[in-house]
Each structure stands twice: as structure tokens, then as C-alpha cells.
Write a structure and sequence with these properties.
Length: 291
């Protein structure tokens, strides 16, 4: 995942990348929660307390991911001249944060196990995938395509399926297979496009740091082709299935509003929407995050 310049803030909050993943990861998860409840004919109000607990469980995982990613990137970031939130932090600080995350995450895992073995399995899988992504000797982050798939799965696919499984367990109603396929395909494709976008923007720094990303293995042109010609069509078709199965009139209306916004950006301000390019605003992301 891409590193950005640090602000002057310090403390635990500054080490967790909250400004990077709160909107980008949690907004689509909340949307899937609402859509799945609506699909099953449930009521949101009785589930709000459980939703807060689910957000807490995902929050702990996100903090864990952020810390181990920066911790294992300390040497590489220094070689590339990139800022790292854990630079200058003691091993004790890192150990306490990671230990706290594992302790709280285990408590959530026990709750999920009693709720549903499927929910618990998806929650555990997300932790395992991101541990393999960052931690040596496996360190999938440094292995090209497996790293892309691991990041997309840990940040998008598994959390989205976890939300669907949790709603199914809480309402006691089976989620249609088509919904699982649509949400899973959309989440995985969206995750792949986003991590490739980050890698395209970080290609120079990753090369200096010796991180063997997909972009460095395949080249920018071939990787962009994969995202534009293969991944994005899958994302669009899967998202169309999500909208079709859920039949949310408000979501379709907001999609039209988003289309109008993109048209204004292009015709008035000259910001042409792009499917996948470094240092550019890629199409549909603003809809997922804000609409």
C-alpha cells in the first residue's frame, strides 16, 4: 500500500494511517452492509449496535495492517527516502500496539466463532492474508501478482464478504448465491485496480527500495492494460449485478448524479476521468466513497 508524507501529528493515531483507510475502506463496507440488510428484507435500526461492533472489529484489523506494513517497510522506506510512521519508534511501542491489536482481534474472533463459523473464518483469513502480505519470509508484497491479489483480498474482498456473512448470521436468512458472487467479484476487481494504481504511482520509490511489485515485474504499460482491459470490465459488470440484485433506486439516482459530476469536471475543468493511471483520479472511486 502506498505511503504518503507525514503530517506533524504524533501518537498512535498517526501510526495507523486512519486518514488513508477510514473513508476508502469503510465507506464501501457500510454501503454493502446497508444493501445486504435491504436485500434480505431486514431493518437497520435493530442492527446498528451490532454494526458498531463490526466496525470495531474491522478497525482493529486495519490498525494491525497499517502497523505491520510500516514496521516491515522501515528499511525499504529509508532506502527510498520515503516517510515511515514508525521511524524513530521503539520496539516496545510497536510490540504494545501489535499485541493490543491481536488481543482485541482475538476477542472479536471468539464472538464471531459463536455467531457463525463462516464469519469467524473470513475474519481470520483477512488477518492471515495481510500478515503474509507484509511479514517475511513469505512477504507477498515483494512477489508481484501474488502481492496484488493478497492486498486486494485483505483490504477489499474478505472484509466485504465478512459484512455479508455477518448480516446473514444476524438476520438468520440465507443470502442468495448471486449476491455473494456479485459482491465478491466487485470487491476483488476494485481492490486489484486500487493497489495497481498505488503501485503505478510508487514505481520509482519501490524500485529504489527493492520492492518487487507487479508494476516493476510486468512494466507500467502491461499492468495498466490488465487493469483497464480485464479488471475494470469485471468490476463494472459485477457492480451492475450488485445494483440490479439490490434494486436500490437511490443508488441508481446517485450514480446519475455522479455521472453528472464527472461530466462537469471534464467539460468545465478539463479533468477527464481515467480507468487507471498514476497520480490521477480514477473513475468510479468517488462514487464508491461518497455517494
Amino acid at each position: 500500500m502506498a505511503n504518503t508524507k507525514l503530517s506533524s501529528k504524533s501518537g498512535i493515531l498517526a501510526t495507523t494511517r486512519a486518514g488513508e483507510w477510514w473513508v476508502h475502506k469503510f465507506s464501501p463496507l457500510l454501503a454493502t452492509f446497508y444493501a445486504t440488510v435491504g436485500l434480505l428484507g431486514g431493518s437497520l435500526l435493530p442492527l446498528l449496535g451490532r454494526l458498531l461492533g463490526l466496525v470495531g472489529a474491522l478497525l482493529v484489523g486495519a490498525i494491525y495492517v497499517s502497523v505491520i506494513n510500516d514496521w516491515t517497510d522501515l528499511t525499504a522506506d529509508a532506502a527510498a527516502g520515503k516517510a515511515n510512521r514508525l521511524a524513530g519508534r521503539s520496539g516496545l511501542f510497536v510490540g504494545l500496539v501489535l499485541g493490543g491489536c491481536l488481543l482485541v482481534g482475538s476477542a472479536f474472533g471468539v464472538y464471531f466463532w459463536h455467531l457463525s463459523h463462516l464469519v469467524a473464518g473470513l475474519y481470520l483469513a483477512a488477518w492471515v492474508v495481510y500478515s503474509l502480505y507484509s511479514l517475511p519470509p513469505v512477504r507477498l508484497k515483494n512477489r508481484g501478482l501474488p502481492g496484488v491479489l493478497a492486498d486486494a483480498s485483505g483490504a477489499h474482498l474478505l472484509p466485504q464478504l465478512l459484512v455479508v456473512a455477518a448480516v446473514q448470521a444476524w438476520l438468520g436468512r440465507a443470502v442468495p448465491g448471486a449476491w455473494w458472487v456479485a459482491v465478491g467479484a466487485w470487491a476483488l476487481a476494485c481492490g486489484i485496480r486500487n493497489i495497481v494504481w498505488h503501485q503505478l504511482g510508487d514505481a520509482v520509490a519501490d524500485a529504489q527500495a527493492g520492492i518487487d511489485t507487479l508494476v516493476l515485474r510486468w512494466g507500467a504499460g502491461r499492468t495498466q492494460w490488465l487493469g483497464q482491459a480485464v479488471v475494470f470490465p469485471v468490476e463494472v459488470v459485477a457492480f451492475g449485478m450488485v445494483l440490479g440484485l439490490g434494486q436500490p433506486g437511490w443508488a441508481l439516482g446517485l450514480l446519475g448524479l455522479y455521472g453528472g459530476l464527472e461530466w462537469c469536471r471534464w467539460r468545465i475543468w478539463g479533468y477527464r476521468p481515467v480507468v487507471l493511471a498514476p497520480d490521477s483520479r480514477i473513475v468510479l472511486n468517488d462514487y464508491y466513497l461518497y455517494f
